[in-house]
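Hi R.,

Here's the chain you asked about this morning:
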Amino acid sequence: MVKIKPFKGIHYNKDKIKKIEDVVAPPYDIISKEMQSQLCDKHPNNFVRLTLNKISNSDNEKDNRYTRAKKLFDTWLNETVLIQSDKPAIYPYKITYNIKNQEKTMNGFFVLLKLDPDYKMVKAHEHTLSKPKADRLNLMRACKTNFEPIQLLYIDKKDDIRKLIDKSIKEPIFDVKGYDGFNHKLWKIEDEEIIHFIKEYLENQILFIADGHHRYQTAIDFANEMKNKTGCKDEDASYNYRMVILANMLDRGLSILPTHRLIKKSDIKISSVIDKLKKYFLVQEKDIVPSSSNIKELCKKIKQEISSVSEHKFAIYTSNKYYILTLKDEKIMDEFASDKSKTWRTLDVSILHKIVLENFLAINQDNLENHVRYTRVDEEAVKLVDDEKFDFSILMNATKIDQLKAVADAGEHMPQKSTYFLPKMLSGLVVYKMKD
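And here is the predicted structure, written out as tokens:
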């Protein structure tokens, strides 16, 4: 059974913070060091100081990025920079944005979700990595707070929940332009009848994690840790719940973008790898004239060349040259992943990881973090190679939402960073603090 409940959210005090856009932040996992500094300089109460406090050379067990976040959080609460709602509520959330010359609005709502350690009612579709989980666990230990939500999807064919919420909301708590240029709006609903309807509607649903696999598993790990530490067997203990955003999987405001791979592996010669890949792929070699190349136009050209409805295609980019790879036959994947479902075997990202990364580059789950980074920005996938920050990159097509559902339903996991949902949530709109 899926169990959700309202909560007394903590949010910025508009009497103290006049420009909310100065204090909200992007999700922690897309913040670069440069952006981190810019956000810190933007306002002394910027939310990044909680989600991604800076590391210092003098950090120790008692004074580090996590303890500093805890100290700041307590101070902002004491000084009423942050204030807590009087009554439990759910928090409707809408993001309006433009993509491919089309305006879209994502509809969701913040709520508490009871954790499902066995992933029976909450389905994951991606593997998680150790470093991000350790980082988020340390922050949760220090602050006992969910600063950022996890995004999960439910299925509502008639869109009943969204329609009910839209009838109930008036003036938003916040209406802010985010770092992404998108419009973010947050409301509060305390009406018990509405909350009861949503609770009952979702009880027998299966939920799918869209964004936040590491944070969800971290919440489970923290709950287990707290149970062992306190001996408390109360299933309704605050640490058994996690702040999430729920959205309808069929919401037209959701978009999935591809996540490109940036590869650091100087011990291989890409031309030799390409020759070996010809056993499994049709390969088109494309030369680039550096002096005449425009990165934006080049990326547009590459994306057009790998675009396909039925074929499995991606591009390997190296300085002054790129290769378009097209899988010769889907049955080839039977050789590499016979233990997986057909849906999993026919994902572009599975084909890439199994045949190219694991078989020819010796990059697997154990050493992935040492050799692979990710970007959703086409131009960045090219420029970082040109700037010799990476040896080559791989430009991908996006995973489809029905593929995500099928893989999760089968209890399987896609390779890391198989999906990139848009729009991304804005951090700092509302927070859930667990009871001590």
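One quick note: The CA atoms of residues 296 and 379 lie 6 Å apart.

Cheers,
M.
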